[in-house]
Amino acid sequence: MTHPAEPIVLDPAGTDPHAEHARLRARGPATPVDVLGVRAWSVSDPALLKRLLTGPEVSKDARRHWPAFEETVPTWPLALWVAVRNMFTAYGADHARLRRIVAPAFSARRIAALRADIDTIVAGLLDALAAVPAGTVVDLRERLAYPLPIAVIGRLLGVPEKDRESFRTLVDGVFDTTLDAVAAQANAERLYALFQAFISAKRAAPGDDMTSLLLAARDEEGDGSRLSEDELADTLLLMISAGYETTVNVIDQAVTALLTHPDQLAHVRAGRAGWEDVVEETLRHEPAVKHLPLRFAVTDIPLPDGTVIAEGEAILASYAAANRHPDWHGPSADAFDLTRVTKDHLAFGHGVHFCLGAPLARMEVAAVLAALFARFPGLRLAVPAAGLERMPSLITNGHRRLPVLLGAPAR
Questions:
Q1: What angle do CA 150, 323, 171 make, to 5 degrees?
Q2: The pLDDT of residue 122 is above 50
Q3: Sheet with strand 137-139: strands edge to edge
Q4: Distance of CA 293 to the CA centre of its chain
């Protein structure tokens, strides 16, 4: 098989992702794409993607393994995605070191301890929704999907409530792939200024939170050799963006799926499926991240069809396309089906970069869905599903708004 010479130009606004993903799959296990002007190999075949995500022949360290790094970063809108210094972009021993430092903040004990907080936050948000006058259209993304994860990650990191909205707005900008390089850089500068102020305040008054743990890892060695100052700020950026933005989208997509597939919601209400099934099928069917930039070939990588990803070339993990691959989930891969026996997916990544926060995200989404549909049994969309506008991004996978009519709250 010979790949077409011209890459598929990915839509920065992500307006029709499923059609785009079908085009990627039709071109074979891996195919050239244009990611805002950068040429990369989109990998949409799940078997190949898993192999590349676990093998040493692929790196996430752009500085070491992407020859185009220096010339690309100054003018590429997604520069932050490859230039940060944290475990998201680390390779080999550096990645193991950084993950080892962060892992204690996501221990089973710490995550379990957050369950009561999550339930309290959800109850408060639902109480506020119950006070909305009957017949009022409510943006459920703004009133529920956003505030829960920003509050949870805020508590985990020790971010003061007064700063959470600022972090939210700037993190949204990181995921907006319609920004040009100048706007993206300005957004990044404002975000890092906010982080530096937060780090200074937390260093002066540490607490029992993840940021204080990271500060201890940064400062306990006299020369700061365990965690550099850049690694500290960039690790906090990774935690707040991965812990907030992605969970917002899973809540948004799960509610949307259930309201547009009443037969599937009936399975849950009849006990034929559980809320964990909803979470996993949503992660498979509409993962929070569509494409994740970027990885790089450490050596030439021959593919089964005879093509070669050459050393130094960029690789785009196309998770959403892989999740619906018919070789993985059969001819019904595009269907939202809670009774599906195998709901395997790559929504949290795979291999050494598998998301540390996956248990927390799963717990948050299951808790809020169970409480929402119990409290508002008549919940329904306020617009046709086709009228829901997608977030302007080829990375993140959610809606700008999720307008609903709540119906009468349960007593």
A1: 25
A2: yes
A3: 137-139, 403-405, 380-381
A4: 12
Q: What is the three-state SS of 3-40?
A: CCCCCEECCCCCCCHHHHHHHHHHCCCEEEEEECCEEE
CA distances from 2 to 30, 300, 303, 309, 310 (A): 11, 17, 11, 13, 15
Which single residue is written with the structure tokens 């302007």?
392
What distances in angstroms separate CA 18 from CA 80, 190, 245, 383, one per listed residue?
26, 33, 21, 21
Strand 308-309 to 314-317 pairing: unpaired
Give every CB contact of residue 250 below 8 A, 6+ residues apart in sequence.
279, 282, 283, 288, 361, 365
Quickly list DSSP for 205-255: S--SSHHHHHHHHHHSSTT--SS-HHHHHHHHHHHHHHHHHHHHHHHHHHH
* Cβ neighbours of 250 (radius 10 Å): 27
Q: Is the model's pTM score more than 0.85?
A: yes
Instruction: Give the pairing type, strands 30-35 and 8-9.
Output: parallel
Collapsed DSSP state (helix, strand, coil) of residue 316: strand
Torsion angles phi and psi, residue 404, rounded to 5: -135, 160
Q: With bands split at pLDDT 50, 70 and 90, how would you rate the model's confidence at 100?
A: confident
- What residue type is 408 in one-letter code? A
Over range 128-152, report the average pLDDT. 96
Task: Check if the beta carbon of residue 85 is closer than 8 Å to that of residue 234.
Answer: yes
289-306 pLDDT, tens per residue?
A: 999 999 999 999 999 888
Pick from 294, 293, 297: nearest CA to 56: 297
Taking the alpha carbons at both ends of the chain, their separation in whole angstroms is 62
- How large a percentage of the chain has pLDDT more than 90? 81
Give residues with Cβ within 8 angstroms of 130, minimum separation 6: 375, 406, 409
